[in-house]
């Protein structure tokens, strides 16, 4: 039986899944499934103290996220998912690096609603793409404060139709510093508390 330490070891150096070969992807998915069988938190959505906070993406099979690393002259930095349980809000933030002074970010703000003990529906409400220096980006926390306090940012800031832009996520494993989720498009996400 592979545990948490073994999973972290086999996903290390895979650049969130970008560098994983097909056999490695299969081994990682098997290790994830084994760990999910021993989820210490059977009702993840009731464990708001564990769920709330900023999470950093360690590994995913999401082609949409991994595609962010294929933009010419740009390199994908950290990807965060910041959950605010008290407002049922989630902020996905990807840092983009490349040419000096052109460091950017892509953020999607959404609302979530629990529909079972481990599943949430997610309605995406706002897409923001911009340059870090134009909004004085320092951290995910600083960006979230700006999103919550400002109507529009100095960036491409677009409202999304939350009826069309929605999905669901099952939280299949969560402890003090690791979370695993499975999305409606078959994607797997492994995140650590930031």
Give an overview of the whole structure.
The chain is an alpha+beta fold. The protein has one domain: Beta Barrel (Lipocalin), CATH 2.40.128.280. Helix content is 21%, strand content 40%. The protein contains five helices and nine strands, in the order H-H-H-E-H-E-E-E-E-H-E-E-E-E. The chain has helices at 4-11, 22-36, 48-51, 63-66, 140-149, and strands at residues 53-60, 74-84, 89-98, 104-114, 119-131, 156-159, 166-174, 178-183, 188-193. The chain has an eight-stranded antiparallel β-barrel. A hairpin with a 4-residue loop joins strand 4 and strand 5. The protein is globular. It starts with a helix and ends with a strand. 28% of the residues are buried.
Could you list the spans in which at least 5 consecutive residues all have pLDDT below 50? none
Biggest sheet, spatial arrangement of strands: 1-2-3-4-5-7-8-9
SSE ordering: HHHEHEEEEHEEEE
**Tell me about the biggest sheet?**
8 strands, antiparallel, barrel
Question: Which geometry do the CA atoms define?
Answer: globular
Number of domains: 1
Amount of helix? 10-25%
Strand content: 35-45%
Question: Could you name the CATH topology?
Answer: Lipocalin
Describe the secondary structure blueprint for this structure.
Elements: H1 4-11, H2 22-36, H3 48-51, E1 53-60, H4 63-66, E2 74-84, E3 89-98, E4 104-114, E5 119-131, H5 140-149, E6 156-159, E7 166-174, E8 178-183, E9 188-193
Helix pairs in contact: 1-2
Give a quick rundown of the structure:
The chain is 21% helix and 40% strand. It has 194 residues and is an alpha+beta fold. The radius of gyration is 17 Å and the shape is globular.
